[in-house]
């Protein structure tokens, strides 16, 4: 019997966005513990650019062709052995481990533990925009043990994860301050910031103290750490911030915790609850068709972001 085919984004070498292409590929068959998802939408994240460009080649190796993408939303159309039959036909969302399989394809066979029922109140595009940034945000706020009334500084607040951190923290009753570019000050205020500071206008944070800091940029972890109260907490998921975070364990003052996103049903269910309570809204900058994947990656490579880039794959 002839194997069913699908359209998928793949690349045969590391490089600029132009290495990406939409190709015919065999439709996957779900293995034990997996579900087959008809993908409706995926989003583009900075880690996708790092994988595509070869910045992470020591981890990703040289096996080609490779696929791309982490976040997805769609419908379960097949079950592998051992998967709960209640998932059949369900609308789901999820995120894979960034260095594992790519999701930018018409169909995806994925570990059932990496997806969950999509939240009500958002469509597939909105659902696809949230898992990676949302799980990262939840884990970062757990790391600093955010509570109502705490003063929280979010560095890099106009990006996807920073925006999610600000929204969820504000919903929990935290007093949120943000650092972004001047162009994004109003954007940050719209999504939870009581105070918004611009790194490109010389705004001085020196006289302020915070109970917690989440630094999504990582280029000035030591300086931001100095803004904490003596018993304050700080976390960063940024690769650039990891050396300073590890060094903080050996230095006087608060330790900086490193947060690494772990996909899983438990975090997705917590995230869905935030969405359904109206505490977290997807922020989408632009929609792209599957054939516009190169353009989406070119936009990602500019380093400027206000909302997620979402690839629409199926109605």
Structure write-up:
There is one protein chain. This protein is α/β, with parallel strands linked by helices and about 325 residues long. The chain has 2 domains: about 5-130 and about 280-310, Alpha-Beta Complex (Quinone Oxidoreductase, Chain A, domain 1); about 135-260, NAD(P)-binding Rossmann-like Domain (Rossmann fold). It is built from 10 helices and 16 strands. The protein has helices at about 45-55, 55-60, 125-130, 130-145, 160-170, 185-190, 220-225, 240-245, 265-275, 295-300, and strands at about 5-10, 20-25, 35-45, 65, 70-80, 90-95, 105-110, 115, 150-155, 175-180, 195-200, 210-215, 230-235, 255-260, 285-290, 310. Strands 3, 5, 6, 7, 8, 15 and 16 form a 7-stranded mixed β-sheet that branches. It has a 6-stranded parallel β-sheet with strand order 11-10-9-12-13-14. β10 (about 175-180), α6 (about 185-190) and β11 (about 195-200) form a beta-alpha-beta unit. α4 packs across α5 and α4 (about 130-145) packs across α9. The longest helix is centred in the middle third of the chain and has 13 residues, at about 130-145. The radius of gyration is 20 Å and the shape is globular. The model has no long low-confidence stretch (mean pLDDT about 90).
